[in-house]
Amino acid sequence: MDRLLFLLATGLARGAVFALFALSLVLIWRAARIVNFAQGAMAVTAAYVAFAVTALTGSYWVGLASGLAAAALLGLAVERGVMRFASHASPLSGVIIAIGLVMVLQSLLGMLAGQTVRPMAAPFDESPIVVGGVPILSPYDAFVLVVALAVMAGLALLFGRTSLGLQLRAAAFAPEVSRLLGVRAARMTTIGWMLSAAVAALAALLLIPTELGLNPHSTDVLFVYAFAVAVVGGLDSPAGALVGGLVVGVAMSLVTGYLGATVAPIAVLVLLVGVLLVRPGGIFSAREARTA
Amino acid sequence: MSTRRFLLTAAGLTVLAIAGTFLLDPYRNYQLAVIAATFCAAAGLTLLIGVSGQLSLGHAALMAAGGYGYALAANALTDAGVDGVPRFLLAFLAALAASGMLGLLLGLAAARLSGPYLAGVTLALVVALPAFAAVFGGVLGGDQGLQIAFDGVPAPLRMLVALEQWQAWVAILVTAVVVTGIAAIRRGGAGLKMRAIAADRTAARLSGVRAGRVQVGAFTASALAAGAGGAILCFVTQSVSPGGYTLAFSLLLVVAVVVGGLGSIGGAAVGSAIVVLLPWLIGTLTGALDLPAEIEQRLAGNLGVFVFGVLLIVVMAARPGGLAAAVPVSWRRRGRRAPASVAPEPEVVDVDALPHHPTATSETER
Amino acid sequence: MAQHRPRILRAALAVVGAGALVAGAAGCSTPAVTGAAAVPGVGDDVITIGSHQPLTGPAAAGYSSISAATSAYFDYVNDHGGINGRTIEYLVEDDGYNPANTQTVVRKLVQEDEVFAILNGLGTATHTSVLDYLNQQEVPDLFVASGSTNWNQPEEYPWTYGFNADYVVEGAALAQHALDTQPDAVVCLLGQDDDFGDEFIEGAELVLGEGGLAAVERYSVSNQDVAAQIGALQAAGCEINLLATVNGFSALALGTAAKLGWFPQWYASSSGGDYPTLIGYLGEDLGPKLLQGFTSTNYLPMEGDAWVDLFRTINDEYNGGAPFDGNTIYGMSVGYLFAEALAKAGDDPTRQSLVDAVSSGDLVGNGVLPLAFGADSHAAFHGVGITTVDQGVQSYTDSAYVLEGDTVESVELDPVPLEGEGIPTAD
Predict the structure, then answer these.
(1) Residue in C with minimal Cα distance to B14
(2) Which of C229, C260, C282 sits opposite A135 (nearest CB)?
(3) One domain for residues C266 and C365
(4) Which of B24, B180, B204, C175 is the most exposed place for a label (fewest CB within 10 A)?
(5) Beta strands C393-404 and C383-390: pairing type?
(6) Nearest-CA neighbor of B91 among B194, B228, B286, B188?
(7) Helix orientation angle between C64-79 and C306-318, rounded to the nearest 10 degrees
(8) Which of A256, A266, A268, A269 should be substituted to probe chain C, the one whose Cβ sees the most C Cβ atoms within 10 Å?
(9) How far apart are CA A229 and CA A242, in angstroms?
(10) Domain holding A165: CATH number?
(11) Angle at the Cα of C80 (from C74 to C85), degrees rounded to 5?
(12) Splitting chain C (427 residues) into consecutive groups of 10 residues, what average pLDDT does each group show?
């Protein structure tokens, strides 16, 4: 029982990070109808900026802020500079361009910063609070959970309650009509990209201190897990990303704990295929199964 | 082109390639064999992406399935005392069976998914490959993979050809057969149906095409080709291991297919040669520049990946006309779809030359 | 359709053209009927050897410094006149830790660069993929950089020789050390989910008996979250944890346990027990505290030895003062051992005379235990010394163990003293 509780607790914080990253995929999907396969590479690039600034100023928070700003700028650059050329008629070309982007960003990082793993320090104590003999959450885990939930709540408010949010949604769902109604659809798409890139970078920056450290490939696995999360929750559903993230995080922790670490990637694959075959639109998708 | 001329072209190119091996030293012949294996997989992939409109990021896993099938069968046959040509042929069939089965399963899933979903599932598959090798370590040999018995040059040829040249011959012959098969599918009725579905699934189904079945068929055919490629690599290197079939290699296959022109068999050949030779050329180049060790180390490997990435983006972005034609219409947004006439050779069609208007997406010959 | 054929033909021509270009400097493939007995890679005043190393890719972190150190040592030797009048040219090819690349670059080294020998090829999975090839081609395959037992098969692979003390030896030695010093402790193990972990467990169970490990957890390099495994070890009440881990995962294991407020004893393989590297991962603040009392194995000279002082000088002078850690010592020790083998292979070395020199049992190397090479042993070390960290200094304890057959024996350390300038001679 203690073991189960421990595994649930460790899975939760990681799940929150998966959820956050998955949310960034949902954002971009809603804004541009693209699954951005370069999201992980963009996030790790921003993390390098954060790392450099932290090293320069000595402040984690300045580094974090610069990382998020860099991510937003990168989102802007990618949307305006590269994705603009993707044929709007076909997601295929967007996916392939994104893969090209992954290769470019990761190889540039490899050339500029090398392959060495650079440890990143967490801003909080990472030793967990022990409840009844079971270590539950560390202050850092709590920080991750709070940040993740706050960002999600903030985005829900943005989309649900503000005029900008309404315009963003309108531009994504009916670009022609909203353009006729005076919404700057292109600008909205760009804002969607910037927002999404910043959220992804935040997720990466929260995750990396709990792992070995920063490396051009730090987010490879995160992307695969987050993609699974987004699919499980439904690419259209922010709430789905949250629940999906927690489900996948806890499931991975349980699989690792009871079946062994080796099995985890297979479990992700099984989960992904299973959900897609039963509910191709994701568990939380309200609409009819979407195939593209 | 008539079937006869088609087959003659195929045979001619094969003879040309085999003659070419006499000009090459052993290391170049080894590279040629690797190019041939890559070409096998790329030809299958170009059929899948360019013609049937399904994107797979996990074709390396299908090659690995072929490689493991070949190695397992070859080892079993060696234990049973079979060797030489019978062993090669039987093991090769096992490779096709393994990759074909996996391809069929994936295809069944793929027929229900498409677009980015399929890309994501295949991505997760290739990422999970080392886990499969470890979990079934007793059979698949874990991280180190499997080693197979050495197949030397057959006795009658020993005075004539070196080992690497012989391996290149085998690779070229297998590739010739496989690629001819893929090309035949592409130009035949099945290819027409694939294009029809890629262009407009609903319209195709209304005209009696069994869409699901065709998509599964396309996936299986492309998996067989990939498996053949994996079997060649296993034959040439006498080993197969998960480390050789990484996500990075999978993406290189996509590069090979895109750079050469989606849907084009010749393009896949050129693309395969590029992805095999470019890293080596860049390595030779940076080696010759006499750079400081530190810089050379950082450029090695990375520079090749960088060039491939740029190539992918530039080809997709700057030549949308040539490529968008091969991009299936079914992936275009709902509501933007218009009944498209099915052109026999969509790769010469230029969609992007037309204004992006919902109803103007009909295709015309260039 | 008509437009189609020229496309294919053009493509085909392009391929053939590319092939012809590639052929460029190429000779003919047909087996040459030359009787000339020129030894590949041996020139009048230079010997060319090669290696495959992970210089790029996700798995490369922390390994690229080894070949740089070996190269620096060879530069030092070359500046002092080389070996038997020949300088050593060391060609290092990047394989990105990918067996498919290893096969390509090793063929390039053997066929195109015509190296005399392959030295210190790194990695179990990578090097296993060229083991058959190198032995078929009868290329000396010296001092493989991995602790797998694969390299010590003189019957099957007469041209291959290992360098690291193998994982079975390390697992057995650490388990024996645990048993000798704390007979009642609960001993557990965290291991990589490949041959590294398997062979290490095999060694530990030789000593502790089947089921002698109270808990065994495995990790996968693709997943950097080891909380579940560490949690299980903690729950099992482990007091000593044997680690069959690479440096990064040793650090993760210690760090994760510390986060859980758990501070057991750690006994790590030499592959995951290098103090400076671990400090790099754990940080200057936390690292020294967590690593106090950290136990590991080693078989090469450590800080404070004359060898290390020499290597440090070489590192400053020939390696641009790169960070000096266990990898540097390892790389230079490999270089020294190769130079010694070459020196004893005669004035006009052949591939056969090189492996004969290794098999003769006359090499002494620079380790802390006698080399085990001989006619029926292709392993460099059958034993290891136990090291521990005290106040930020990692050094040998008095314990050392040798695995003979299935039994572990306690032995005395027997370090080879540095003679002259660290450049081997023929006698």
Answers:
(1) C12
(2) C260
(3) no
(4) B180
(5) antiparallel
(6) B228
(7) 90
(8) A256
(9) 9
(10) 1.10.3470
(11) 85
(12) 43 46 44 58 92 77 84 94 92 86 91 93 91 91 92 93 93 93 92 89 92 89 82 90 91 87 91 88 84 93 90 92 89 94 91 93 90 91 92 90 88 87 83
The verdict on residue A52 lying in a domain is yes
Q: Which of A275, B103, A36 is nearest to A267 (CA)?
A: A275
CA–CA min distance C231, chain A (Å): 8
Q: Residue C258 maps to which CATH number?
A: 3.40.50.2300
Report chain C residues whose CB lies below 8 A from the CB of B283: 93-94
Model pTM score: 0.83
For residue C385, the Cα-to-chain-centroid distance in whole angstroms is 17
**For C56, which of B1, B245, B302 is closest by C-beta distance?**
B302
> Which residue carries 């009696």 as its tokens?
B208
DSSP notation for B65-91: HHHHHHHHHHHHHHHTT--HHHHHHHH
Q: Which residue range forms the structural domain that includes residue A44?
A: 2-115+134-278
- Both C160 and C220 in one domain: the answer is no
Asked whether residue C396 is domain-assigned, the answer is: no
Q: Where in the sequence is the domain holding C175, given as residue range(s)? A: 167-297
Instruction: Give B164's strand partners.
Output: none
Task: Using CA coordinates, name the residue in chain C closest to B230.
Answer: C100
Please give the backbone phi and psi of residue B323, each rounded to the nearest 5 degrees, phi first. Answer: -90, -40
Contact A124, A143 (CB under 8 A): yes
Q: Are residues C307 and C283 in the same domain?
A: no
Cα C218-C222-C226 angle, rounded to 5 deg? 45
Please say whether the beta carbons of C40 and C298 come within 8 A: no
Which tens digit of pLDDT belongs to each residue from B193-247?
888 888 787 888 888 888 888 889 999 999 999 999 999 999 998 889 888 898 8
Residue A90: which pLDDT band, with cuts at 50, 70 and 90? low
Q: How many domains does chain C have?
A: 2
What is the spatial distance between Cα C322 and Cα C64, in angstroms, rounded to a whole number?
Answer: 12
Put simply, the answer to whether B269 touches C11 (Cβ < 8 Å) is yes
Residue tagged 């949902």 (tokens): A26
Which of A253, A278, A220 is CA-nearest to residue A99? A220
Nearest to A14 among C60, C222, C225 (CB): C225
CA–CA separation, A220 vs B135, rounded Å?
21
Domain co-membership, C235 together with C344: no
CB proximity under 8 Å: A 242-271 to C: 253, 256-257, 260-262, 264-265
Contacts of A3 in chain C (CB under 8 A): 231-232, 235
Question: Is A173 inside a domain boundary?
Answer: yes
